[in-house]
Amino acid sequence: MIQPFLELSYISKIFPTPKGPFVALKDVALKIRKGEFIALLGHSGCGKSTLLNIVAGLSKASAGGVILEGKETDEPGPDRMVVFQNYALLPWLTAYENVHLAVRSTMPGAPESERRSVAERYLALVGLAAKADKRPGEISGGQKQRVAIARALATRPKVLLLDEPFGALDALTREEMQEEVLKIWEADRTTVLMVTHEIDEAILMADRIVMMTNGPAATIGEVFEVPFARPRSRAEILEDPAYYTLRNRILEFLYDRFGEPVLAD
Ligand SMILES: Nc1ncnc2c1ncn2[C@@H]1O[C@H](COP(=O)(O)OP(=O)(O)OP(=O)(O)O)[C@@H](O)[C@H]1O
C-alpha cells in the first residue's frame, strides 16, 4: 500500500477532570494524501480543536498518534503551521515584521534579502502589501487574519492547520477570505486540515469533508468526497444539483443522526 502523506492513526484523547477521566476522542483514524484539503466538521464541543492541536503537536494523544511522511510526530514543528480564529499576531510588531519573524525562524541560514522577499511576497499574496507597516491594532479583523495566513504560508509548511480561520469575521469578509485562501491554495497545494462549523465553507474549499460524531468519545462518523472540479466558484457550485445532495447528506448527518442541540460555550 502507498504510504499516506499524513496519517491520523487511531488517536484517542482522555482529559483528566475533577469528575474523573473524560474521553474526548476515541480511535480517530484518517489517511490524508499530499496536497489534499480536508475539512473537519461537527457540532460544537465534539473535539475538532482537540484533534487539530494533537496534529499540531500542541497536545499529546492519549493513544495512537500522528504520522507525517512515515514518521511519528508528537511535538510542534515548522512542518505544521496553525492559523487560529483569533490571529495570534504579536501586537508590537508590524504586519511585515510578524511575517518576517516566522520566515526568519524557519529559514535561519538564508540570506536576509531572500527572507525579506519571501515575507514581502506572502504579504502581497494576501493583498496586504500596502499595510505592511501597520501594527495589528491598526488594521481590521480580516486584515489581521490575512497577516496570520501569510505568516503561516510564508514558512512553507508541509501541513497547514486552520482552526476556524474565518470564524471571527463578518459574512462578507469571510466569503472573500475563503476565495483568497482557495486561490493561494490552488497555486501551491499545501496539505490542509481545516476545522469549521460552516457547511458551505467546507463544500467550497475541501476535497473531503470529515464528519465528527458528538462526544464524549467522538470519532469520525463519515467522510464525504466533494465532487466539484477546481478551480471552484461559489456561483457554479450553487447551480450544481450535486451541491444540494451533498449539503443534505451533511445536514442529515448533523441533525438527524447526531442532532444534539449545539451548546453555547
Ligand atoms: N483541557 C481540557 N480538559 C478537559 N476537557 C477538555 C479540555 N479541552 C477540551 N475538553 C473537552 O473536550 C471536548 C472537545 O473540545 P474541543 O474544543 O476540541 O471541541 P470543538 O469541536 O473544537 O468545539 P468548538 O467547535 O465549540 O470549538 C469538549 O467536551 C471539551 O469540553
Automatic annotation (TrEMBL):
Domain ABC transporter: 6-239
Positions in coiled-coil regions: none
InterPro entries assigned to the protein according to its UniProt record, in alphabetical order: AAA+_ATPase, ABC_transporter-like_ATP-bd, ABC_transporter-like_CS, ABC_transporter_ATP-bind, NO3_transporter_ATP-bd-like, P-loop_NTPase
Main location: membrane
Pfam family, one: ABC_tran
Localization terms from the record: Cell inner membrane
Signal peptide: none
Membrane topology value: Peripheral membrane protein
One example GO MF annotation: ATP binding
PANTHER family noted in UniProt: NITRATE ABC TRANSPORTER ATP-BINDING PROTEIN, TAURINE IMPORT ATP-BINDING PROTEIN-RELATED
Family listed: Belongs to the ABC transporter superfamily. Nitrate/nitrite/cyanate uptake transporter (NitT) (TC 3.A.1.16) family.
Protein name from the UniProt record: ATP-binding cassette domain-containing protein
Organism: Gloeobacter morelensis MG652769
